[in-house]
Amino acid sequence: MTLHVTNTLTGESEPFEPRDPEDVLLYYCGLTVSDPPHLGHARSWVHVDVMHRWLEFLGYDVRHVENFTDVNEKIVARVGEDDLGGSEAAVAETYIQRTIDDMRSLNLLRAEVYPRVSEHVPEIIDLVETLIEKGYAYESNGSVYFDVTGFDEYGKLSNQDLDEIESQGEPDERSEKRNPADFALWKAGGVDPDAVEEHRHEGVDHGGDPPEGLTWDSPWGEGRPGWHIECSAMSMTHLDETLDIHVGGRDLVFPHHENEIAQSEAATDQQFANYWLHCELFQMDDEKMSSSLGNFVTVDDAIDRWGTNVVRTFLTAGSYNSKQLYSDETIAEAEQRWAQLERGYEAAVEALDSPAASSKVEDGALRDAIDGARETFTAAMNDDFNTREAQSALLSIATAINRHLEAARGDTDRDAGPAYDYRGLRRAVETLAELGGVLGLSFTGETTGSADLAGDVVDLVLEVREREREAGNYERADELRDELAALGIEVQDTDDGSTYRLPSEE
RNA sequence: GCCAAGGUGGCAGAGUCCGGCCGAACGCAGCGGCCUGCAGAGCCGCCCACCGCCGGUUCAAAUCCGGCCCUUGGCUCCA
């Protein structure tokens, strides 16, 4: 069984064959650091992260590179806001740090490199010069444009017809471009003040002076790199001329990725990326999640509200290449799914700790269920990273655990007590941790010092409550349970006493 | 207008590439039952889908072919 992926380039599901049987070169189009990351970004990150983890699970070494676009008018537009910083570089730095923090709290595997545009201008200039030399690009008033008519395959990713694109362009007599569809590789001069103005937040005081952005010397005079060239230059610098997998948001297919292909392949005469994978976007009711509509949730807030595991369960509750609905209901569902997984895991751990667990007991149904779940999980992930199906497999392990515990308790004759399948439960716990790990879910719930203390206190309260129950003071017992619940502590009464769960997360 | 993706139960969301195991997964919500002092959790069972519409191919279609309707995203400014 091999991994299949849906390639935007062909529109079809294809068996995945990296150029090198051991290494996979993975490039993800990162973000322009001009705003705090929101859940939409997190959705793509998490799916790329799951791809990365699954490729490693399959035995590949993954060389994962993800850029930061730190040169952009949108960033300049933030200069002077609040405490973001007084220059393009400072604003970018602020958001890069924030982005890295968010990535960490989402439990993302680190990429090998996070290259920045501002640190790759020489490589960009080299690439532009190559394109001019090869006749694919031309200089005009200090700017350099890519001539799309020179690249026969232009439009192959997005299925655009060049004539169609051209006819769309507004005729502009004074344009520096030969063709409306040509795009800038290098832009003469400093930042475009109109573009900056367009991205300013209303009612924010930016101080007096018009902001300046970064500029560099080039063979064509002072200027800034164009929007698309960065990804070509950085991926070639840190990976290779041909990538195995290039991932990005669906919204980048055209023109960004289309242009990347054109300039890269024109420059190297090599295929730029063998597999183009695109993450679909969030939908809020009938519109997409976007900053301008003000309907987004920042990664930061999401983690605070629901915790990493719930957020990741939510983000992987649909396929990476299908749109996903964001609503209170869909989040609540994800909370339930995660809670079920966690409860199943914890129930198994608890049973393993009890003297009733024995290596002499064997529950075939439990073991079969685990094996089946592993097969389902593997098949699902190999089928274009079907994370929803993979979650189902995990859930079926939780169910199998509960079923086994239930059966064992049911068999109990009073004196002997229940008997648990020690090895079966161990396998269940290990499998959940291992496969859950592929989705970036963490069952280990490491408790911090304060959580330990909280645990001790809860134990104390439960002890008091138990005495009330024994004395028949159920009203008082229920009050205590409700009061704990109000603090987010879930109490569950069982035959062997009461257990509890602290509110999840870090 | 062009390009792309999609329309599956009350919600959400797999399955569509490789037609039959789909009388449609997993989950949420709802309804019974077991358990419980009660609740929750768990377990068992149930309810809810003529798979957008119309036609075709086939022994057999959610899955293939054709037409139509609708939704969403990108482009139509900059690039």
Automatic annotation (TrEMBL):
InterPro entries: Cys-tRNA-ligase, Cys-tRNA-synt_Ia_DALR, Cys-tRNA/MSH_ligase, CysS_C, Rossmann-like_a/b/a_fold, tRNA-synt_1_cat_dom, tRNAsynth_Ia_anticodon-bd
Identification of the protein by name: Cysteine--tRNA ligase
Biased composition (Basic and acidic residues): 200-209
Family designation: Belongs to the class-I aminoacyl-tRNA synthetase family.
UniProt KW Ligase keyword: yes
GO molecular function annotation: ATP binding; cysteine-tRNA ligase activity; zinc ion binding
Lineage: Archaea, Methanobacteriati, Methanobacteriota, Stenosarchaea group, Halobacteria
Organism: Natrinema pallidum DSM 3751
Subcellular location(s) of the protein: Cytoplasm
GO BP field: cysteinyl-tRNA aminoacylation
Catalytic function, reaction form: tRNA(Cys) + L-cysteine + ATP = L-cysteinyl-tRNA(Cys) + AMP + diphosphate
Chain residues that bind ATP: 291
Motif ('HIGH' region): 31-41
Domain Cysteinyl-tRNA synthetase class Ia DALR residues, every copy: 376-453
Cofactors that this protein relies on: Zn(2+)
Domain of life: Archaea
Residues engaged in binding Zn(2+): 29, 231, 256, 260
Location of the motif 'KMSKS' region: 288-292
